[in-house]
Amino acid sequence: MIDETLVKNTVIELLKDSSTKLPLDVKNALEKAYEIEEGPAKAQLEAIIKNIKMAEESSTPLCQDTGVHIFFVKIGDVGNSKLEKKLPNIIIEGVREATRTIPLRPNAVHPLTRKNPGDNVGDYMPYVNFTPIDSDYIEITAMPKGAGSENMSKVAMLNPSDGLKGIKKFALDTVVSAGSKPCPPTIIGLGIGGSADISIKLAKMALLRPIDQRHPDPTIASLEKELFEAFNSLGIGVMGLGGKTTVLGVNAELGYCHTASLPVAINVQCWAGRKATARIYKDGRVEHLTYKR
Amino acid sequence: MDKILNLPLDEKTVRGLKIGETVYLNGIFFTARDEAHMHALEYAKEGKKIPYDFKGAAIYHCGPIMAKQNDKWRAVAAGPTTSTRMNSLEPEFIEKFKVSAIIGKGGMSKPTVDAMQKFGCVYLAITGGAAVLAAKGIKEVLGVEWYELGMPEALWVLVGEKFGPLTVAIDAHGNSLYADVEKEVERNIPKAKEILKI
């Protein structure tokens, strides 16, 4: 049966998987980039690919920036309402233990005093997004987010008349000004619509989708493809040292917005697009979706 | 044959490095990012001595994951952080402490490039995110200062053994690979706009 310890241990496993491995879609995109690049870009990609292998083999975090800890949790009916209420605390305890045992870098600090409690836990951190769903499992996604790429994220409140052109211009400006800083080749999450906060949430949620899967809406899918081509024509390249590969993928999500606004946001993800998802069923069965057992 | 440089570096060696060259480092070097930079500059302002002499040293923009076993620190993962965050601090840092190399990712802005030219310092790029590979080149962790700043922000004293590969991305003569790429990107923007029909 599902219980507190099982959920906590699963959280720790997800943190370990997400910090030491990369999803197949991202690895494939990096391999593909390696094939087409030459010169310094190829050498950088060689180091990246070699590093991924070393991290996987030694179960060591592939990047020292193991991020701040963001979770997406879908809560179904597992017949244990007491457990559901305890979920936020169970996840916090999981983060504490994983920080100590993996180990993860203690990144969470007070924004003003910069004091570091050393356990990646503080107000609103880890941050957990809960969504109720009609199912007999709890699905947890761990998405550690490093600061180098997160720092390049932007939101803009466009006028409705700016339309698709305005969105593309904003996206291009954001990628150009990010330049070498977010550890390119990056994955660009684009959030269109909602409100200011929802657009940036949509941009982050877009990063949950594999980069080889296009948006189901053909208009958004073609926007993703167009932006992908445009960004890769810029020549920023791997680590900003030039080349053909500036982005590995562009994923967009869309939400309805107020008739008087057009919010648009970009959440930048470095090449280490880390995440791991698992489902814990009512009967105690755990199904790992990103890294199958 | 791989070019290995021994730390600390002398001015002749530094001035002889060319952009695009690949090098490795042997010897003692230090991590310092936002907080350690500010801390060291405050020390200098107050006339206090910093714990180590940085003359000819390599400073690594890195907040590592360190693990302590039997009272001894070990580098678990130690890739670079984004150097541009130190843009406003680095020119003064180079001038005050006479460091000879900055290791990081993403490059640095013109005032730092100018300070590197003036005082004889280079920027060595290491692959961002490749933290296990980087840690492999750290033979030993000699110690840590200012640990109260937190693990990522503390000043770690490392011993490199063929630490790299590092690309000379800004030399001591005012040349920067990043500035070259930026110019190229400017030239490519019209093409990108054409693709986007904007």
Question: In summary, what is this structure?
Answer:
The complex is a heterodimer of chains A (293) and B (198). Chain A is α+β, with helices and mostly antiparallel strands and 293 residues long.
| Largest sheet features of chain A | 5 strands, mixed
Structural Rg of chain A = 19 Å
Helices of chain B, by number, come to 6
Find the CATH topology of chain B.
fumarase
For the secondary structure, the number of strands of chain B is 9
- Helix count of chain A equals 8
Radius of gyration of chain B: 17 Å
Please outline the major beta sheet of chain B: 5 strands, mixed, barrel
Contiguous runs where pLDDT drops below 50 for at least 5 residues of chain A:
none
Strand order of the largest sheet of chain A: 2-1-3-8-9
Beta-strand percentage of chain B? 25-35%
Named at the architecture level, the CATH assignment of chain B is: Alpha-Beta Barrel
**Beta-strand percentage range of chain A:** 15-25%
Number of domains of chain A: 2
Strand order of the largest sheet of chain B: 2-3-6-7-9
Shape of chain B: globular
Distance between the termini of chain B: 49 Å
Mean of residue pLDDT of chain A?
97
Family (chain A): Belongs to the class-I fumarase family.
Keywords (chain A): 4Fe-4S, Iron, Iron-sulfur, Lyase, Metal-binding
GO molecular function (chain A): 4 iron, 4 sulfur cluster binding; lyase activity; metal ion binding
Protein name (chain A): Fumarate hydratase
